[in-house]
């Protein structure tokens, strides 16, 4: 029997609101992987749709945790980073990548920092520029269109783009250093929403879509990234893994709409986990 793969998820904890670690930990665990966590910050709620949230920066804890893991000869089959709590954490997480990188493991960076053309309230342009350092060390990066614009220091284009534009973005993003890119939030038709994948080694570009459900749903980017990683670790090719991630995010949104849940608390991914397990063939 193949040994159980181990993942470390480096994200914040939003105590209320389904995103970051409260999404990554259950999804990756449900996919059958031993999931360790390294919290970058603790917030009373996530930052979308809530005001006056508390915020505790955990920058000072990152290196001691990493050092302790190293002393235990701990290893990971995948390292998955998302929201970082401070500019200093970029160098610390980059150092952690170097410490725990092996010839076989997978480093996935979701440069969580912006959406709808704007940086999140706790992020700065300096942090956005610094995020390119992590992208350079990744095997796969998973930005949305807004994050892609900030990473490349280009104007954000929300709509009216064509495939040539998206494919140019993918290739420019790969030049940051990551050989594979998955760009999310892609839509060429009003009733379709999905992602584009690019493997710079093969030159292959694929598009994956599902029906577009109108509205803004918090946490779906984290659901996508966690599902993508789970599918890749389950040995699905990149394009198939991206399709599973798009489809699962869509299923989570459907459950949320059906249950008439308040959107700012995130989507009901828990109700759709049986769908994910089936898609992964577990």
Automatic annotation (TrEMBL):
GO molecular function: ATP binding; pyridoxal kinase activity
SUPFAM superfamilies: Ribokinase-like (SSF53613)
Pfam families, A to Z: Phos_pyr_kin
GO CC list: cytosol
GO biological process, one term: pyridoxal 5'-phosphate salvage
The EC number(s) this enzyme carries: 2.7.1.35
CDD domains: pyridoxal_pyridoxamine_kinase
Gene3D superfamilies (UniProt xref): 3.40.1190.20
UniProt keyword terms in alphabetical order: ATP-binding, Kinase, Nucleotide-binding, Transferase
Stretches that traverse the bilayer: none
Domain Pyridoxamine kinase/Phosphomethylpyrimidine kinase: 75-262
NCBIfam families: PRK07105.1
Family matches, as PANTHER family: PYRIDOXAL KINASE
Protein name, per record: pyridoxal kinase
Lineage: Bacteria, Bacillati, Bacillota, Clostridia, Eubacteriales
């Amino acid at each position: 029997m193949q040994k159980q793969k181990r993942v470390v998820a480096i994200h914040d904890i939003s105590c209320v609101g389904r995103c970051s670690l409260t999404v990554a930990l259950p999804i990756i665990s449900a996919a059958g992987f031993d999931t360790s966590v390294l919290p970058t910050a603790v917030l009373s709620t996530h930052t979308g749709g809530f005001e006056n949230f508390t915020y505790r920066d955990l920058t000072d804890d990152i290196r001691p945790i990493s050092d302790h893991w190293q002393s235990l000869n701990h290893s990971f089959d995948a390292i998955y980073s998302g929201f970082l709590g401070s500019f200093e954490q970029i160098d610390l997480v980059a150092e952690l990548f170097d410490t725990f990188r092996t010839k076989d493991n997978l480093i996935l960076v979701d440069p969580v920092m912006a959406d709808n053309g704007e940086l999140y309230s706790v992020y700065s342009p300096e942090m956005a520029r610094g995020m390119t350092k992590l992208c350079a060390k990744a095997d796969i990066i998973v930005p949305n269109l807004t994050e892609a614009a900030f990473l490349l220091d280009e104007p954000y284009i929300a709509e009216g783009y064509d495939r040539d534009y998206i494919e140019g973005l993918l290739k420019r993003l790969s030049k940051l250093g990551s050989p594979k890119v998955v760009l999310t939030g892609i839509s060429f038709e009003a009733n379709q929403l999905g992602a584009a994948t690019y493997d710079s080694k093969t030159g292959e570009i694929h598009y994956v879509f599902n029906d577009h459900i109108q509205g803004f749903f918090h946490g779906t980017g984290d659901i996508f990234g966690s599902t993508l990683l789970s599918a890749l670790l389950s040995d699905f090719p990149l394009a198939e893994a991206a399709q599973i991630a798009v489809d699962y995010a869509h299923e989570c949104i459907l459950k949320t709409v059906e249950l008439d849940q308040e959107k700012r608390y995130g989507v009901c991914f828990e109700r759709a986990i049986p769908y994910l397990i089936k898609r992964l063939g577990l």
